[in-house]
Structure prediction request, 70 residues.
Amino acid sequence: RDFRRGDVRTFSTKGMKVSGQKEPALFIKRVVGLPGDELVIREKKLWINGKPQEEVFESPVEQYVDIGVR
Prediction:
């Protein structure tokens, strides 16, 4: 199935080397960006394709510096 914005996905770190982890872990994550999207954290807010997002995230965006990903 294709990923859609807002989907919740799980994945395991089994077989992956993750800094600070000795045992595999299961992660639960929400999809916020899709292929071709421009994601930016600016002024403590998530922007997708130039539009600020109003959603509340479990991890406060305040912990990040301004970044952008394409």
Observations:
- Strands lie at 8-12, 26-30, 39-42, 45-48, 51-52, 67-69.
- The two ends are 23 Å apart (CA to CA).
- The chain is about 0% helix and 35% strand.
- The chain has a mean pLDDT of 80.
